[in-house]
Amino acid sequence: MSLGQKLAPHLPFLRRYARALTGSQSHGDNYVRATLEAIVAAPGDFPADVDARVGLYRTFQAIWQSTSFDDDGAAQPPFGAEREAVAQARLQTITPLSRQALLLTAMEGFTVTETAYLIDSSDDEVEALVADAVAEIERQTRTDVLIIEDEPIIAMDLETIVRDLGHSVTGVAVTRDEAVAQAHAHRPGLVLADIQLADDSSGIDAVKDILAEFSVPVIFITAFPERLLTGERPEPTFLITKPFQRSTVRAAISQALFFDAATVAA
To answer: Where is the Response regulatory domain (predicted)?
Structure first.
């Protein structure tokens, strides 16, 4: 099997991680594109002593730490001390290292040891970074959350996670029409949405209707991520696969609100 064939199944999920890091599909895809270009240009440099998925993310992390992109998507690689300053500034203002560690472990499912390899840290440092990120989640601004989910047990689980994080739940909608009506009645600060709803309506359409009225961060939670990770149309910045871990939902909520707060501050 060629290297390209080994990497292909992991690319949609690398794109998901890149979007979660940058808060933008276009910027995330720029980093993934640069990663693939680096692999094609120097296939002999691709890590041969680890799993292909780990090697892919390792290459991505190297690109992330050493390359910035201008508004047109053109790569602007910094050099020397300037390179280090730009990289550190970006990590501090966009996605701190603690959040990278949390996303890699909680959302992408890497072990602590694998994450340590990916971000050039020790296992103890990764555990401390994740703990810092979790503590930051608990300190962050509270918001009102609309849950769009037609499976009662999953909806209850999500509601518990949201409340445990200190947020409020404005309501639980099981259809597109219910979701839109509840959003209009009480504007949420965050939406958690399933794709397939009770009356065969679409959570995607519900979100489109809501976003047509006002801007709000959205996290899709679905058993069918391949329906959204096609690369053929705009994709959600935050996408969680069912069945999910509570830590994954916590990480996604934290990151979604992190970017929303950054936008408001800007």
So the answer is: 144-257
pLDDT digits (tens, 9 = 90+) for 172-223: 999 999 999 999 999 999 999 998 898 888 898 999 999 999 999 999 998 8
Yes or no: domain 3-137 corresponds to CATH 2.40.40.10 = no
Q: How many CB atoms are closer than 10 A to CB 249?
A: 21
Cα angle: 237, vertex 64, 219; to 5 degrees: 15
Following DSSP, what letter does each residue of 15-78 receive, concatenated? HHHHHHHHS-HHHHHHHHHHHHHHHHH-GGGS-SSS-HHHHHHHHHHHHHHH-EE-TTS-EE--
| CATH number 3.40.50.2300 is the correct assignment for the domain at 140-265 | yes
Ranges of each domain in the chain = 3-137, 140-265
Model-level pTM? 0.69
Residue 84 pLDDT > 50, yes or no? Answer: no
